[in-house]
Structure formats: structure tokens, C-alpha cells
């Protein structure tokens, strides 16, 4: 949509600074930095119409062509006007939403339409410093707050998330694209971590051993670290933030979180609800951005620990850089999750679960079952698997009967299509082709239908890469031992599953497989928060996993006290008869 952006009036031997007021946020501000004119009298006026930042070269050519004897220098910067129809995402610093002063904005597009729905700032250095300073100030009081008070805050927070679950799910669907049902599951799995945080009075217990020597006792406390930080991915915009800051907070830490620039809306609403629940100002702060924000978190001396979920390349970079700076780092990385289908499995249940686990959330799950290994005669089920997958409905996430929505971006779609094509070129059979799916009314969306590649080999690119789309790679094995060997040779260890009705087969698989999370007739074996998320090998970097006991260990350090109180020093005092109360 074009609109008139500026009326330029330039006078000789004058420095005129102009802005594109009331402009589209993707437009440019053009400042006249210098003008040299000799002998030209009067003035001239130019009307310039541009649509977006990509039109800047045309604007420059237009201006330079209007006046031949003038020497111009122009400075271009992105510009977000408060008069724009497109809202901006705010920072959350010291308990309030703060409009960024950045000149650099990221367009966030609805994956179903590719229309811009908000502009996400690349937070300035000062804004990021302010966020950490706020968290550092808040830590002093929050870390000394009683565990019962922190627990009560979590009880209220738990209630508010449950009350606002549908609103949060709608935010997820709008920005990320997944179906509303799946988005509610995204929120629910995060809420379960908050539920578990409400048990902090048991979780954070220390240990004691009395009388290690005469009149001497030893005891341990689990104490908070200080300011912690989280960097979250786009695929679970509600769940992953809730894996991070609630557990850190309830242990007494404060937090700075950088949500994915592709869908920060759910995280922003979650921190608002946290404030409403009674989380004090400064205890949770939100910054935005990309590379600079990540480097800032890795390097800042006041940040003690970093939690990350995302891709291999970024995760290993954060782990190495953060660790070199003396920080604790936990990083969930890539995955290639295999499902082994034995001939004795319950065919109906197995095929139903395979379809859901492979194609749900458009395959954009780190625990998606992306690779099926059919053992022996089970390979005869592949055509029926394809028929079931073909029946899935691809549509915008908010459409009630949609089974899977779009992938996150055109770039993600292109990468998925390239990996599918690479499989075909390398000899895989395209059993089901979802590349040309069309969604009426959403022709510009990032849609890919369920796709199945069979006859896949371990040396193929489509097998070696995490596709992160609605694509199932199918391999075959003659025996269970062959299937186990195949999986153990893969570098990733996030999750795996076996489908069988034989207990001895299941036991052999669970004991011999080298993967951190195993399902028996469960395709996506993500543990509930009383356990921990235990991806292993190349799927995880760090010492302590997310949530559960490992998560509590990550966000606390042990303080051991050995104390001597000699019995001979005892002083008699009167007993206090008033009931103690929480202060």
C-alpha cells in the first residue's frame, strides 16, 4: 500500500533536515546531511512516494536526478512512527513495558499470510544494560524473600496462566502458526512446570548431618545464583519461557529473557501476568534482538547462568562463549528422533501415533518423531501410513479443523523443500508429496503438507539434517539389533520410541539404546516436570538438564556449613510462647 510520505522543500545554501512523519514503519527516514549550491536562487519542491525500505535506492535516484548542481549526502535508517498502523513489541524492563529507542526493527509476519503484524526491536545496548541492572537490583531483596512468599507468587501465577490460556494460545497461533489446539498444549506444558514450582518448599530442601564430631553439625543450603538469562526458540513460544524463568525465580534468582524475535508475543503476555501475580519489578526483564542480544547475554559479567533451546549452531556458540566467560550454560540443541516399529506392534495405534508425532505442529518440534524405522514385515504398513497422513488437513492455525498449520517463515519453507528434493535426488522414494499444497484464502502462507520419504539411507542429507518440517524419513531394518545400531550411530540423543507388544523387546531396546528420552508405545516421550528433560549426546550441551531436579540444581548452588556450638556455652533463656508467623 503506497502512501505519500514526505513533501520536501529545499532552499539554497541551507541545511534542511526532514523526516517521513506518520510513515509506514518499514519506510526510511532521509536526512539531508549537506547541501552545496552556487548561484541557484529560489527553491524547489519534490513529492516522493515510497512503500518500504527496499524502495530507498529509488528514492535516492529520484532526489539525485532532480538537481544536477547539488552535492548530496543522505543517511538512511529504519523508522518506526508512533502513528503507524502496525504495533511495535516493547521491552519489559523494571516492571513496565518500554518502547525501544532502536533504529533497527524486525518485521514479524503471520506465517499463514506473511502480513506484518508487529515490529520487534533489536534492543539497544543501553536498554539491555538497563534490563540487567534492574535484575541485579531486584536480586538483593528477592533472594532474601522467604520461600513461602515465593511459593505464594507461583500459586497466583499458576492460576492466572490457567485463566488466560485461550488468550495465550491465540497469541501463539497468530505469531507462530500452530493450530489453536496445539497452542493450548504449548501453554499447558509450560504451566505444568509452574505447577511443579509450587512444590519449592520440598524441592529446595538442603541436607543435614548432626554430630559429625562432638558438638559439630554439617548442613547444606541450596541458594540462588543471581541474575540468570534465557534465550528461547520460535517453536514453543509459551512453553520454553515457562521452562526457564519461573523455576529460576522461585529459587530466588532474577531473570533476563530474550524470546525469539519471530514470536515474542506469548512471552510478553506471560511476564505481564507475572507482574499481576506479584512478581516484583525487576525480577523478570525482557529484551529483544538477534546476534547482538545473544552476545550481550554471553558476555555480561553480571549474568551468572544461561538457558538456551534452539539450533545446533547457535546453541554450541552460546555454550562455548558463555562457558568461556565463566557462566553456567544449559543448551538443548538439535535432534533426529527415531521410532522403531516392530512387526508385533498394535498396528492401528502405532500408525495413528506415528502420524501425529511426525506431522503435528508442522514438524516444528525438537521431539517430533522425524524418522521411522520399520523392522521386518512391519515395512508393509508404509502405504497405509501414507494414506492416513494424506487425510490430515492443512490450514491456518486458527481454523477449527486444521491438523497442521504453516511453518514459521518463507526461509524455513525453502529449506524444507530443498531437503525433500535432496532426498529424491539421492534415491529416496517420495511416498507422499506435500510440497504443492494450496490453502484457499491463504495462498501466501508458508504451507507444506505431510511428506513421506521412504528408502532413506543414513548417508543422505535428508537423514543427517534436522528438517524441522512436516517430513517423515522412513528406513527399514531386518532386526531389532540392526535398528538399535542405526540409532546409536546417529550423533543425536534427544528422544526415541519403540512400538511393540513384547515386554522383553521393549526392555532390550531401553537398555541398549543410547538416547536420553525413550518412549515405549509413546511417540513423543517428553517427561513431566517432576522429572527432567534429559536429551543427551549431541542434543544437549551442559551439565544440568531443564526442569525437575536437574533444573533446580542448575539454578542454585550448594552452600555447606559446618558449625561448632559447644554444649558448655549453653545459655538458659525463657521460652517464647507466641506462635511464629511468616515475615
What is the oligomer described by this structure? single chain
N-C termini distance: 60 Å
> What is the overall pLDDT average?
88
Q: Which descriptor suits the 3D outline?
A: globular
* Structure class: alpha/beta
What profile does the largest beta sheet have? 7 strands, mixed
Strand coverage percent: 15-25%
Low-confidence stretches: 1-83
Q: What is the helix fraction of residues, given as a range?
A: 25-40%
Count the helices. How many?
17
Number of strands: 26
Strand order of the largest sheet: 18-19-20-17-16-22-23
Rg is 28 Å
Polypeptide structure, described:
There is one protein chain. This protein is of the alpha/beta class and 583 residues long. It has 17 helices and 26 strands. The strands form eight sheets. The protein has a seven-stranded mixed beta sheet, with helices on both faces. The model is unreliable at 1-83 (pLDDT under 50).
